[in-house]
Amino acid sequence: MRCRYCDTPDSLERTAGYTIYDGGTPPALRSNPVSTDDLVALVGSILKHEAPIDAIALTGGEPLTQSEFLAALLEAGRFPVPVLLETNGVLPRRLRDVLAFVDIISMDIKLPSNTGEGGFWEEHAEFLALARVKDLYAKVLVDQTTADDDVVHAAALLASITPNLAAFLQPIVDAAGRLQIEATRLTRLYGLARRHLESIRVLPQTHKLLGIR
Question: Least buried of 76, 168, 189, 192, by fewest C-beta within 10 Å?
């Protein structure tokens, strides 16, 4: 996907190498592709030396574009902490590859009025039907361009899974950390979502506000 507000544009292209950030040591550059054995060893070392670590996050870009690799990695690693999958929620068939190996799913609802992409309502519905067997929560990203109807559709879709599903409205933030939605608009969108969802919260991208990579 090429969402208009993408905050990881460097993930949109494949690169010749990858970078390891490990504690206080200088970043290390290694060549792609990485093998499952090498990555299992790397993650195991970080879990051991950087403890306590609460979970492993699979993020991106979209991690499910490499679902077969992730399934092989997680099956080989059998890591001793929960595994969190961060996903755009539009690849239900690929979710099946990793579902047995993840514990928590953080799913975005992609709204056509602010992504610049088409709608993915059918894909989201199929994805949610699979993902609800895990510890699941959903994020609905919003900005000043977000349409009322999109938020209502998203909230109703999530409520069809369960009315008390943990859900968050996440204000889109630009590269400089500035919110892309006014308070009055955010309040209105929250009210629309709350009509359908018992557990809806506003959650800014805290790492951006704090300047954390």
Answer: 76
- 160-174: pLDDT as tens digits: 988 889 999 999 988
* One-letter-per-residue 3-state SS of the chain: CCCCCCCCHHHHCCCCEEEECCCCCCCEEEECCCCHHHHHHHHHHHHHHCCCCCCEEECCCCHHHHHHHHHHHHHHHCCCCCEEEEECCCCHHHHHHHHHHCCEEEEEECCHHHHCCCCCHHHHHHHHHHHCCCEEEEEEEECCCCCHHHHHHHHHHHHHHCCCCEEEEEECECCCCCECCCHHHHHHHHHHHHCCCCCEEECCCHHHHCCCC
Q: How far is 189 from 200, CA to CA, in rounded Å?
A: 11
The predicted pLDDT at position 4 comes to: 65
Residue type, 25: T
- The domain covering 55-209 belongs, at the CATH homologous superfamily level, to Aldolase class I (3.20.20.70)
Nearest alpha carbon to residue 155 among 135, 143, 140? 140
Angle between helices 121-131 and 148-161 (to 10 degrees): 30
**pTM for this one?**
0.91
Counting every residue written for the chain, the total comes to: 213
Report the first-to-last Cα separation within the chain, whole angstroms: 22
Please report the pLDDT score of residue 9 as a whole number. 64
